[in-house]
Amino acid sequence: MRTRGAALFANVVAGLALGFVVANIGFGDYGQLHTMFTLRDPRMLLAFAGAVAIIVVVFAVIGVRRVPPRLHAGVVPGAVLFGIGWAISGGCPAIPLVQLGSGYLPALATIAGIVVGVRLCRRVSPRILPSGTGSCGD
Question: What does the pLDDT average to over 15-31?
Answer without folding.
Answer: 80
